[in-house]
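Session log. Operator J.P. requested a structure for one protein chain; no other inputs attached. Running the standard single-chain path with token output.
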Amino acid sequence: MAFVSLLFGLTGNQTLVGSIPLDALLTEQTELSAKVSAHAVEDGSTITDHIACEPEKLTVSGVITAASIFAFGSSGRSKLMAVKDALRQIQERRVPVTIVTGSDVYVNFAMLSAKISRSPSGEQLSLECSFQKIVMVTLREGHLPPANVAQSAKGKAGQTGAKSGKVSDATATDVPPAPVT
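Structure written below.
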């Protein structure tokens, strides 16, 4: 029964790439990375005083077969053509997708690449898709007291909002704040 479930996706842990169900998930690789600053100082040593988290990356590989559990539904090569078309639409529309696997749900990911290989018999597609988390920016606005507006206008001529008493600050969402030391 496990082999049949693997081929036909009869388990509750089916992998979805957007709206595309994989018949079998072969690999799921999550990459969490960060950049550490490096600044040379006069004595020749390097100071590393900041860590910047990079967006999470995901690589999924799997198989989609022409087989279908529905005897009279769309099946065969039309299923494979529909999968290729759906992947093309994800790439062309440039919209974030949700990827669901047996171990995690990845929300708001952009497709970086999709490698699609067809078997010699033409009855299955092998996929390797790479994704990156989209980190959105939210704009915050605050008001300065009137006494500080004059100082801001003098010290930072040309800054947007200096005369109006408004200060803008962009912050990334889905990124935890840096610890205060």
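Operator note: Residues 1-11 have pLDDT under 50 and may be disordered.
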